[in-house]
Amino acid sequence: MLRHFSRSLRFQFLIALSGVLLLALCSLGAMSKWIIFPALHKEERGIISQELKRVERSLALAQQELLAQARDWANWDDTYEFVQGNYSRYREVNFSPEMMQEMRYQLIAFFDASGDIYFLSGLAPDTGEYTTCTRTLGNCAWMSPYIDSIQLSLEDSSDQQRYLFPGASSPAMVAVTPIVRTDGSGPSVGWLAKVRLMNEEWIAQMEAVTGLPITIEQLPSSQIEPMTTIEGDTIYAQHLLPTNVPAINISIGTQLNRTHYLASLDTIRYVLIWTACLMLFVIGFVLWLMERIILRPLKALSVFARQASGEDTRLDSALLCQRSDEIGILARSFEQQLTRQRELNAELLNLSTHDALTGLPNRRLFDQELQAAIHETEARSQPLAVMMLDIDHFKLFNDHYGHQKGDECLQQVALALQNVAASHNFLIARTGGEEFSALLPNISANTAKQIGYQLHRTVDQLKLPHKASPVAPHVTISVGIGSLDDSSDISPTALMSTADQALYRAKAAGRHQVMVFTPPTSSASAYTHDTPL
Ligand SMILES: Nc1nc2c(ncn2[C@@H]2O[C@H](COP(=O)(O)OP(=O)(O)OP(=O)(O)O)[C@@H](O)[C@H]2O)c(=O)[nH]1
């Protein structure tokens, strides 16, 4: 059963379409894994990268703003005069803790033309205490690292500059610019530097401006952090910015919620699952269609063919033959061939069991029927009679009238004998050249004798001329009758031998007579009959 199914078209279609489905699903999976998901991921990284650049631009703007504020003060005649000691009230007029807090300056430093400290004003990072001094000592000691870095930068460049500086608690942005007159004329008489801490307060302001969460850290230069990291439903991106202290970098970063990305993933997964289900349905539907349109009719056709080859008369091909498609054409031509084949078979069977000249059953059919009749007779204990009939002096007929006339004579005699056989419902066959045999089941020897006379009379009544016959002027026959009761055994040969012996005695007694079998004398026991088995 399983072996048969594995060779069927249904199985082959199933395997082929399952293969197609598997290939399509693998393609979908591969496309998702190597094209769709990476594209989404790239898009997500692109978005966070752009947001980070926006934060960096805001930082650059903040630095630019601080530099502009420093330049505003440095390009002012009052400052110009103050640094040269010509404006004593400059401090009182321009400096106050409120101004420092409002402007979020941590430190404002003035340097003379030789780069030495002229005046310092700042808010202590720890206490917020406002101090002014001319040296980085006492309350102004916290200013020392800033001042050192500024003086170092003055050595490198005499132009204005801005940079990031790693502070003790938080990094700071520094802007340094030369002090000149308001109209920009005259030589620089010193430098002015402003320092603003990038502390939590500053970060909060930046977050308000950008609308993004911002993290700022100071990292050793040796520590290289990845640009982008993903943790759960959050993606982080950061950028390392150099400071004027080579050993330390400042990392500025931001983060985004991945809900958009995760929602896209969910949507794509949903689409993929539904696509797979749809494909499954389509392939199932195709299989169903194939089953209905091709496989079922083909199966019916194969059943039709099997039944036809088995000569099954129950086959019903009407539905198949009514179809207008290729299967219908195939079924119709198959049925036509089958009908033709049956006709030929019937013709062949008829040819093999009937005599071509007279149309009577031949010896082959007679012997088959004889065998069957003996079995039947045995089983039911019924009588069975046989006859042998022979045209008298038929050689002389042929010699006198010719072979053609002899054939016609045989046909007429056969027809007459057949009519009698049909009326009594027994079988008569042409079993030799001019010899006929009759099989009379369930008929006693006496009744057979009556029938023998009837046959004898019938041929007589034909009055077929036979001038050469020494017996009569017309064609006559001799009849020998035997029966199962007369036979010592029940073989066909033995049974036919009784009729043959009776015929021989009819011939010997002068022909043109009916003779019933009588047991032979010892001298007559050598008579034989050549009926084959
Ligand atoms: N025309 C014709 N003659 C046939 C046919 N078959 C056999 N014969 C002839 O039938 C004749 C039979 O002759 P025999 O066996 O000598 O018998 P017979 O002449 O009838 O003599 P008895 O039977 O003794 O009365 C032969 O001449 C055969 O040629 C046939 O199909 N057509």
From TrEMBL:
Q: Which GO terms describe its molecular function?
A: diguanylate cyclase activity
At the top level of its lineage, which domain of life is listed?
A: Bacteria
Q: Which CDD domains match?
A: GGDEF, HAMP
* Residue span(s) of domain HAMP: 292-346
Any single Pfam family the record assigns to this protein = GGDEF
Q: Which cofactor does it need?
A: Mg(2+)
**Which reactions fall under this protein's catalytic activity?**
2 GTP = 3',3'-c-di-GMP + 2 diphosphate
- What SMART domains does this protein map onto? GGDEF
Q: Name one GO cellular component term.
A: plasma membrane
Q: For the GGDEF domain, which residue ranges apply?
A: 382-519
The enzyme's E.C. designation: 2.7.7.65
Question: One GO biological process from the UniProt record?
Answer: signal transduction
Mind listing the UniProt keywords for this protein, alphabetically?
Membrane, Transmembrane, Transmembrane helix
Q: Where is the signal peptide?
A: none
User: Any stretches that span the bilayer, and where are they?
Assistant: 271-290
Q: What is this protein called?
A: diguanylate cyclase
What is the native source organism of this protein?
A: Vreelandella songnenensis
